Amino acid sequence: MGAVEATVENSTDMADLLASLVLPAGVGSLMNFSEEEAGYVQSDYGDFAAVHSSYKQSTVVMVIYILMYAAIFVLCVCGNTSVLYMILRTPKARGVVTNFFIMNLATGDLVLGLVNLPFTLVTYIYVEDMFGDALCKLVPFLRGILVCTSIFTVTAIAFERYYLVVYPTEEKISIRTATRAIMSIWVVAVFINMPIAMVHRSEVYGGQHICAQYWPADTLRRVYTCFKLITCYALPLIANALLNYVIVMNIWIRPPVKSRNPSPNRLRAVKILAATTVIFGLSWLPLHVCALLEDFGFLSWSQRESMHHYVYPVAMWMALANTCVNPVVYGALNNNLRESYRNATNPGHTPLLLAASRTPRPTHTPRINEHVHIELKELR
């Protein structure tokens, strides 16, 4: 027995030494920003030492995670499917530029939920990589693309609303222009996330397959962390805030001449615009804070392990909840999509979806706020 105990102790010491000395330099942070932004949560360093267990948490914690992620999965699928159904079943709805962007957003969020949630839940529960080297590369890469696409599409919607309000007499953004914008969004998202596919691979440590990131140097990993933080969070957040602020200034603070006070519909439009920015910022903030702490916080081993097992799952859950909130913000609170739903479920119903577009363009240059009041029917 003494020999066996000594062997086990020596094996554990060797695993600890491997995790603390070799992996941080070669692998870098397994829970760093790039990986979290992609929505793919891998095993952490502590798991290389704790190879005696197949699970990362206790049974109670695993049940809580399963319930949390199952709820998000159901809401994401039902919500985004409903939005797509509303738009696709109404031909005229597909001709509205805003709805065109919303379709792209709902599609990205739907695929993100279908692909991301099951794999993320499994990687939070099991220590060993269950999917092999191919999926180790493909899944985080695809998820990173979908996350960036969702964020950029939200910004595109804000810009389209801004252009409609601030330049009401100019020609509207066409479907062709919107299509080019969406294609550009996908191309940029692929380019940004290329390093994720390049640094991921599954290798064997302690007799178990571990999917991890293998950076040539920690400096490169930290540079990429900052790059993703700026391009996929900070800049879109600032852009959304500024664009929505300008919109609010035009449709609420300076109401039309005929109305001294903002109408209920106008207040609803302002709430929708404000909600998009606030929800986006709050949903993704915890995950980015964790990523910065991971790379720049000089955390101890126990702090790092605790954050991987208990903080990251909640932060990721909050980020994924954004895929459920978007259908509510852009669907349930949007008169256009509600009209599309009525038209889809009641073929005899004549939608008011394009009431603004059916209004003839005035031959004279209108006062900006009066015209904005008409055009914002598409937003409300």
TrEMBL record:
Biological process (GO) annotations held by this record are: cellular response to hormone stimulus; G protein-coupled receptor signaling pathway
- Secreted as a keyword of this entry, yes or no, is no
Which residue ranges does UniProt annotate as crossing the membrane?
62-88, 100-126, 138-159, 180-199, 233-252, 272-294, 314-333
Which SUPFAM superfamilies does the record cross-reference, listed alphabetically? Family A G protein-coupled receptor-like
In Pfam terms, one family for this protein is 7tm_1
Q: Which UniProt keywords apply?
A: Cell membrane, G-protein coupled receptor, Membrane, Receptor, Transducer, Transmembrane, Transmembrane helix
Residue ranges occupied by any G-protein coupled receptors family 1 profile domain in the UniProt entry:
79-330
What domain of life does the UniProt record list for this protein's source? Eukaryota
Location relative to the cell: Cell membrane
User: What molecular function terms (GO) are annotated for this protein?
Assistant: G protein-coupled receptor activity; neuropeptide Y receptor activity
Report if keyword Transmembrane helix is assigned. yes
* Membrane topology, as annotated: Multi-pass membrane protein
> Can you tell me which family this protein belongs to?
Belongs to the G-protein coupled receptor 1 family.
Task: Spell out the protein name for this chain.
Answer: Neuropeptide FF receptor 2-like
Q: Which organism is it from?
A: Branchiostoma floridae (Florida lancelet)
